[in-house]
Amino acid sequence: MIESPINNSILFEKFSEFTASFPCDVPVWIDTNKYGVPDMLRDYQYPVSAWPVVISPRVAGELNQLTIRLPKLLGQLPSLYFNNDIRKIAAFYFGGDEMVTQFALMCHEKNIEIGCRLDLTLTSEGFKVLEVNVGSSIGGWQVQSFESIIRQLHSPLTKEETAHNFESRNTQAIYIKFLVDNILKHQLVTNKELNIFIEIGDMAKNEEEKDRIRQFFDGLLKQELKARGLTGGAYIGALSTLTLGNAGRLFLNNKCFHAVLIFNMEKEKVPPVIFRSFLMDKVYFPDHLGTQVLGDKRNLSLLRVLAERGVFSAEDNALILQYIPWTSPVEDRNVIFKDGEYKLLSLMADNKDQFVIKAAGGFQGKNVFVGRFLSRQEWENAINMALGKSAFIAQEFSESLDFLAPNAANKWVPHKLIWGAFGFGEHYGGVWVRMSSAKTDLGVINSATGAIEAIVYEWKD
């Protein structure tokens, strides 16, 4: 029951406009068995809100800038922070393995465009970037398939006089266009046929589910290829089935592949033939060894160090220091925090409510410890665990503002939000939201840990 207009909601300034005529019998979450969705999403495991998040052009512009600028700055870390010193880079990212590091830098220096997703929270001080995810395994773009359903449910999105004022960026179409653009840019297609090979690991429970995933991606790809006068498609299989053919191209039987994507984060080992083909410029492979460097969460602390030294342009230094919260690798050393120098371990132990500990290579909310939601003993255990590992970060806790949104009982209650903003090269790919009730919040807001997903619309005057 909505009793009065509210501004601090997921609808922002458009609360009254959207709630005035919302039918009370519509469920708070999308029922995938009731509404038409692609087969792959028929049994979608995460709840999707029937209500959109509605943001202003200013907020969209802010996210646009961040998704395009930050990945470019990350790409400069090997040269600007490590001075391309193989030994230092190996010690930081690859456990001292200099041979692997050599290959990683060879991949990185090819400077191919890679998709990214920034995870942010909107705090009382504005947006804060909690992490930067890179590569093909960045999830969330699938949710755009629910957009047409949500549009049907809300009159401002369907009425002729207002519908054109609301845009939900089609992340799927932007992503597929980005992939095809990159394949064509490197002149990998020679006979008007473009094929993409995808490794999904154990994402599918059986062959039927695997084929639904393939059909979903294949449908998106074929639509883009048809618009360009091309043929081809998407294929799913194990990387080990690919073979190196003439002139360094990758084949499965007689089918030539122009891109290899790895969707599963817990992926199989990449065979040498794929790296050979990539280094010979015969395949678009965004999940190469260099991507491991770009995706390390400790990079946020390195960016802040460089910005504090004034290494980047004045504009980029300001952007880093404004949007990236204080971050440091968990080590027994002194740090500067809020204009004071402290022993990091003592600072964390004495101020647990101000910090979060994360695995530098973690995903789906795994190995994340939020001090304010842990007992003193649990927090000390987390510090000791992180200290015993080489790749954990301490990050200043950035608390989301409260935004009213409907809960499972269809009551509007405060929620905490995580924003997932997509960047594909020079193109902003839109944003989606994960949210959880503030009453049950434990600091980790992730689809895999029970968060609700939501489509985002931008309103235009």
Automatic annotation (TrEMBL):
Q: Which domain of life does this protein belong to?
A: Bacteria
Protein name per the record: ATP-grasp domain-containing protein
Q: What is the scientific name of the source organism?
A: Chitinophaga rupis
